[in-house]
Amino acid sequence: MKECCSAGQLPVIEVKNLSVTYRARGTGQPDRLAVKNLHLSVRSGEVFGFLGPNGAGKTTTMNVLLGFVNASAGDAFLFGANVRDPIARQRIGYLPELTYYYKFLTAEELLRFYAKIFGIPKAETERRMDAVLKLVDLEGVRKRAIKTYSKGMQQRVGLAQALINDPDLLILDEPTSGLDPIGRMKVREIIQRLKDEGKTVFFSSHELGEVETVCDRVAILHQGELKVEGRVSELAQQHQCNLEQLFLRVIGYTNAPNSPALPSRQNVALPSESEPAVSLLHHSSTPFLHSSK
Amino acid sequence: MRSTRLPLLILTALLVLCFGLAARLGTWFEAWDGNRAQSGDLLQTLLGDSRRIFANHFFIKADAYFHSGYYPTIFDNREAFETPHVAEDAGAAASNNQGDENGFLGKPRDWIDAFGRQFYPSIHTHLNEGGAQAHTASSGDLGDNSDVREILPWLRLSAELDPNSIRTYTVTAYWLRRRMGKVAEAEQFLREGLRENPGSDEILYELGRIFDENHHDANRARNLWELALRSWEKTESTKPDPDKYVYVHIVSSLAMLEKREGNYNRALAYMELWKKRSVEPAKVQERIDDLRRKLPSANSLTSQTQNPKSD
Amino acid sequence: MKNIFAVSGIVIKELYRRKDFYVLFILTVLICLVMASVNIFNDKSIVRYLKEICLLLVWIASLVIAITTTARQIPSERENRTLFPLLAKPLTRTQLLLGKFLGCWLACGLTLFCFYVFFGLLAGSREHQWPIINYLQAGGLHWIMLGVVIAMTLLGSLVFTAPSSNATICFVVSAGILIMGRHLNKVALHMPEPRRGILYSIYYAIPHFELFDVRDLIVHNWPPISWTVCGLATLYALAYAAVFLIAACVVFRRRALS
Fold this sequence. Notes:
The longest helix of chain A is centred in the middle third of the chain and has 16 residues, at about 180-195. Residues about 1-5 and about 260-293 of chain A have low confidence and may be disordered. Chain A contains 8 helices and 10 strands. Chain A is of the alpha/beta class. Chain A is globular. Chain A has helices at about 60-65, 105-120, 120-135, 150-165, 180-195, 210-215, 230-240, 245-250; strands spanning about 15-20, 30-40, 45-50, 75-80, 80, 90-95, 170-175, 200-205, 215-220, 225-230. The radius of gyration of chain B is 27 Å and the shape is extended. By secondary structure, chain C is mainly α. The longest helix of chain C has about 35 residues, at about 95-125. Chain C starts with a helix and ends with a helix. The model of chain C has no long low-confidence stretch (mean pLDDT about 95). Chains B and C meet through α5 and α6 of B and α9, α11 and α12 of C.
């Protein structure tokens, strides 16, 4: 069995030349290229925001990382292990965008079930269960069936199941979707707390304000291609605009005022390990934005 | 208030209309010839004439139970099971059976067939001869095994589904009184059959047997058999191919009864009738000759008009 | 293995928290009690018809539970999106499938146990004897057969889109094999080629569920089957179940989940 890397040595998430094509079966439609030649690297302890409009390829990329979808080309690794290997998922927690869990189970039973899959001993399971339920404020309803939960409570139980194995990497697909402001604040607090504990968080979101607040680095995807990637603060400084304006400009929606002219297309070297925030080689005809340290 | 009142009024009006229409149509429907509403029987109402198919199926099922499950399907050789054995053994129907009843399955055609025979009954048995237990190591001399009662539910159901099937009543009555000692039940069942099939010669004959063999009431037995004979002559004698099987049973029973009672002239008369339609007239003639030899000595006896009845 | 058992535990929990089993069990009990109350010529010892009706209901109920429970496992996981957080754990698709199979099979075993206990009580109340070995064999073979049905349905749930169509097809196939499986070779004999060849191929290819149907032996108090024969039948069923499960694993591994 391939040994996973210890945190800090290898990137936690590494994507190389990833392409994903959805084949159209018998519909007369052409195949759809969902992700094209994606290079991505997320280091340990980072909070990484994965942004893009609907249909950009964010969820597809996440699905490849989680093994739900096979890549058409390229590779993806989690802690140095290929994503197809189940051991790659031993140290991750995943919160899907739409949170549905076994309605006939209680929160306790659900967490015990997932803990069993992780191979967590019983005593440790009980301890962690108490901790995560307290963290997500579901202690009082832990013995109620999930079908009786509100949407916010279901989202929180989703967060609980993502944290039950004390993961080193948390993958969140739009974690604040459908939550009220209090719920969103809770999620931000949890992400911040995880960051303080040295965990890595990789999440996608449409709430750019929240992304700006919590993320260390962001990447913006559009039509399957990575358009921009870098540290939030540096991107803002370079382009003299906030993340939302940058986002809109990247996807070609609007010309935001007071922004410098877009640089012409340049070939830039592949990022190396010594450079924490680098641009990416990009063979598209659309101009790209890059930032450097 | 106004807004809820109007829909309620409309609903009430519709209900009144529906009930009125139902009442009007109901009488019209009941007056309609051949409608099932005339029957109070649930099965007849639900199934109509197709219940006869089910009735036959359950009669065959009774025969399958008689064989403890060892029974040919429609894909097997049924030559030895054309007449159900449960009816054949009861004397209720002439046997059309040929072939080997022990081997209708034949040799196994493949390994699946051979292996599969371990999982269902594959030995010929009769319930009244011990059934499946006759083949177990611990079985002793089982004699008349009362497990034959197990065929009764299917016979009962068959009669319910097709009350016009005479065979069901006579077969059931036979097994009830001969194997299970349930004479009262057999008589009651036959009377039910007679109500459904007035004047049935077979049912009358079987009733006569109850009074003759179980109640030892010769007079009533005679009356019933004579009634059966008249009924047969009325319904069957005009047919180009009358049912001789029942006729032979009736006249032979009458002949034996009269002989027992000492009414030798009448016995001889019935034997002559018997001989005419018997498949073995020579044997009947032997009986006639035997009786005639006794006749001079019997002539000295006066014929008895009454027999003591036993309760 | 622990993952497989964990998944199977969830399936068992689902079964006893749904109403399917209870409804079918109560229906079976009610029908049998009504049948038992019928007066048949004032004889209270008649029992075989009751045994047959009870066993028929048990077989129908068990097939319904097995097929409907299994048919909805993977599709409902996908539809309710519970599949994604599950496969995001260190759980392979093969483990998930095997866990579903084991869970459905064990759940059906539990329901069969309840049904056969009721059957034993019902029959014993009239027969005043309890041929435990016979009942064990009957229940065991029945359970083994359900394993093949469950594996077949699991494969169907990955091939057919809608659980309802999968359930219908599996039910028709299972009932068809139970009724006709034994006779296909006899029918084939009377057919011209190439139909004879096709029918023989089907005859040898299908899993012969009727091998596990020993109701007639139980109803009519035949002696128990030899344990060697039971063992061979079990191996036969395991082979078919393995084929269906392997096919299901191959299909599932290649299937994109979204």
